[in-house]
Amino acid sequence: MSASDESPMTKSAPVKGGSLAGTASSSDCKLYELIQYQCEMVESKIECTPIPRLFLKCPGKPTTEVTPEYDQNGDPLQR
């Protein structure tokens, strides 16, 4: 896949509980989604669960994962 094939999400990229500190402007940044799968063998078949991951890509900065993290109760963790 070439760089021109990338399709960023068209939403702005707010970060819950904070701002995009250190970025030139949140409108310059793009939010990308990647779906990763975790697969397990269950009885005689393979079952896969999708795990969505979010990445923020801003000009002149390394791409940063901004996927929310959750505790064992399903509540978001504060960063």
Short description:
With 79 residues, this protein is an all-beta fold. It has strands spanning 30-42, 45-57, 64-65.
Give structural notes.
The structure is a single chain. The chain has no helices and three strands. The protein has a three-stranded antiparallel sheet with strand order 1-2-3, with no helix packed on it. It is mainly beta. Strand 2 and strand 3 form a beta hairpin. It has one domain (22-79). The protein is elongated and about 50 Å long. Helix content is 0%, strand content 35%. Pfam families: Mitochondr_Som1 (PF11093). Residues 1-10 have a biased composition (Polar residues).
Find the structural class using helix and strand composition: mainly beta
Oligomer: single chain
Based on DSSP secondary structure assignment, what is the total number of beta strands? Answer: 3
* Mean pLDDT across residues: 74
Question: Portion of residues in helices?
Answer: under 10%
Number of domains: 1
Give the topology string: H per helix, E per strand: EEE
Low-confidence stretches: 1-24
Total number of helices? 0
